[in-house]
């Protein structure tokens, strides 16, 4: 538990209130206001949660000023360089890096849960072919609670474990099926002889008419993208999963809520929006026009892939992602990709502009991921489903952590009410 030797004094109308200060293992101190309303009859006000800790957690730590991201204490650049996605999944879920035997058992359990209930194929076929793959993922993942009744009881630790493995294992299958349905090609079943990333590439890009061999370099880049998106503290979609879970909703419903939240362009939808922005800019000579628009208070345009609520320095994931972008595009012989040229020039122009420096707006994880995914052959509509696939382990880890908290209460914020005070009904003839 956090150290509570310090206190903060709040003075309201001449009355002082002593509030405990909780000191974490890393990051800023936290003022515990849980008893404030009972003692002082006041709420605190923080609409975007810019200064609010919604929970305690041991999973992920971000230092936005330093551009540091730790998963269970391990820096993201070390994990991206030395580990792989399923090992990071184990770390996030269970708190420690696995032994060889533990990793083998975990990978085997995931591999043997990759198939979907065959009847779910019919569920896909209810969508229009031009449905956005995220719409399909929200629907299909939510529908999993209608097919996997034996892992919906959140009070049963074994069912929580089975639901966790099922979701991590089946998300690539669902995302790939959403893609195949979208492009009118037949579904491709998972193959247990392929690693997690190669299996996903095979389910997306192989066709019955010919053999497909996933490139090991592209599979490694895909696995790195999964790892870089795995978890990120209490971001909007993770907070959505936690809030849904606080009501006792089943895991599939909670993850479907997280997918829905991630879809927004200010969050996980930014990778799609970023690539569409780079394509709209089109050529390097048009960059100044868009930089000016991003700085114009009267113009709602923002540089997609730039800025972050927490990082006021480089997003460490963007740094790793940029290296992967160079490797993948070099491998594919598209290092002269015009979109990548615009991205690199835009990044340089923005970082040299005092406006972005003053507001501490740096490239985030979404700035380069879209470039890699497009080069690998994915349409922009698949970028956020891939983000959702990757983030499922983070959502699940945070969901499990919350359920194991003996102090768990339903999340129920209050408000600053600015509407009408009580008034009597007016009959229509008198209005
Ligand atoms: C993700 O939370 C997470 O951890 C998320 C994520 C994860 O892994 O889960 O990291 C994934 O969502 C990354 C962010 C992806 N979104 C985008 O790239 C969309 C573009 N970025 C912006 O929408 C914005 O930067 C946010 C939403 C990411 C953060 O916004 P904040 O923290 O709420 O800050 P703000 O919108 O209040 O901006 C502060 C100032 C404003 O100017 P002023 O009103 O102070 O004059 O900076 C400006 C903004 O206008 N600003 C930008 C900008 N982002 C902020 N100006 C131009 N371009 C931008 N991208």
Q: Could you give the order of strands across the largest sheet? A: 1-2-3
Task: Based on Cα principal axes, name the global outline.
Answer: globular
Which hetero ligands occur in this complex?
s-citryldethia Coenzyme A
- The N- to C-terminal Cα distance equals 59 Å
**Integer average pLDDT:** 94
The proportion of residues forming helix, as a percent range, comes to 40-55%
Order of helices and strands: EEEHEEEHHHHHHHHHHHHHHHHH
Structural class: mainly alpha
Number of strands: 6
Which runs of at least 5 residues are low in confidence (pLDDT < 50)?
none
Largest sheet: 3 strands, antiparallel
Which range does the strand content fall in? 5-15%
Radius of gyration: 23 Å
Number of helices: 18
Give an account of the 3D structure.
- The structure is a single chain.
- This protein has 431 residues and is mainly alpha-helical.
- Helices cover 49% and strands 7% of the residues.
- The chain contains 18 helices and six strands.
- It has helices spanning 36-40, 76-82, 85-94, 100-111, 120-124, 133-143, 157-183, 196-205, 216-228, 236-246, 251-262, 270-281, 287-295, 316-331, 338-352, 354-358, 365-376, 383-403, and strands at residues 3-12, 15-23, 30-31, 60-63, 68-71, 74-75.
- The chain has a three-stranded antiparallel sheet with strand order 1-2-3.
- Helix 3 packs parallel to helix 9 (216-228), helix 9 packs across helix 18 and helix 11 (251-262) packs across helix 18.
- It is globular.
- The mean pLDDT is 94.
- The structure holds s-citryldethia Coenzyme A (SDX).
- S-citryldethia Coenzyme A is lined by residues 48, 232, 235, 266-268, 270, 294, 302-310, 359, 361, 364-366.
- S-citryldethia Coenzyme A (SDX) binds next to helix 17.
